[in-house]
Amino acid sequence: MLVDFGIRLVKEKPLGTVGGIITLLLLLTGIFADFLAPYGMNETHLADTLAAPSAQFWLGTDNLGRDLLSRVVFGARISVIVGLAGAAIATIISVIIGLVSGYIGGKLDMVVQRFVDAVMCFPSLILLMFLISIIGPGMWQVIIVLGLSWGVGGSRLIRGATLSIKENVYVEAARAIGCPTTRILIRHILPNIMAPTIILFSTRVPGIILTEASLSFLGYGIPPPAPSWGGMLSGSGRSYMFMAPWMVIWPGLALSIVVYGVNMFGDAVRDLLDPRMRGGVGRYGVKAKKEVKK
Questions:
Q1: pLDDT tens-digit profile of 79-135?
Q2: With the C-alpha atoms ordered 248, 219, 74, 56, is the resulting torsion angle positive or negative?
Q3: Domains in the chain and their CATH numbers?
Q4: Chain-centre distance of CA 6, in angstroms?
Q5: DSSP state, 67?
Q6: CA distance 151 to 130
Q7: pTM above 0.70?
C-alpha cells in the first residue's frame, strides 16, 4: 500500500514529491540533530560574535557567538516535535468530537457545534496568546494549547464524514442487531473515515509549525535559549538584523522552506486519498481515454 502510494505520488504529484522529500529531510534532521550539528545549540564562541558565514561557521554566528547552523538544525527538532505532537493531539480531539457529535446528533450535536462556532469566532492568535499567558510558556504548553485549538476547529471535517457514513446500510444493520454505540463507532465508522483523518493530520502539521513560530516570535511560545525558528527571528534577531542579516535570513529561510514543503506534501496526500479530488473518471481517467481512442 505504501509502495503504491509512493509510486502514485511520484507520477501524479511532482510538487508533492518535492514536498515529501523536504518533509523527510526535516524529520531526519530533527531525529539526528545531535550528529548533524557541528556545535551545541547554546555553545558560545565569545571571540566570534556576529561572525559572518565562513568555513568554520557555515551560516555565521549570533550576538552571543552561537553557531547559527547548529541552532537551525536543533530548531528543526523543535519543529518536528511541535508539529507532529500538536497535529496528533488536534486530530485525536477532532475525531472524538466529530464522531460523537455526528453519530449521536440531536441536541448534543447542536450544543457541541455551537461551542465549536464560538471557539472559531475568536481570532486564533489572540486566543492562543491568552491561553498561554494563563498556563505559561513552554514547549509542551504550546503543544497542548495548539492541539486543543486546532482540534476543535478540525472536528467539522470529521463530523461531515461521520454524517455520511452513518446512513449506510451496514451501520443500520449493526444498530438493528443491538450493537452498542461504542462498537459501531470504533468498528464500523472509524475505519471508514481514516482517509479524511489522515488528510486532517497532514494538513495540520505545517499550520501548527507556523503558528508555533508566530507565538515564539511574539514571546508567547517556546522561551529562550531553546532555538525555535520563530524565537530566533525575534529578540536579538531583530536587534542585530542590520549588522548581521544572516541572523534572520537562515531561520526565516528554513521556516519558509519547511512550511512550503510540508504544505505541498499535505496537499498531495489529500488529493491522492480523497476520492472526491480525482474527478469523475478517477485517477485512471487519462488511461481510460487513451484506451477509448484506440
A1: 999 999 999 999 999 999 999 998 888 888 899 989 998 888 888 888 899 889 888
A2: positive
A3: 2-50+59-293 (1.10.3720.10)
A4: 20
A5: B
A6: 17
A7: yes
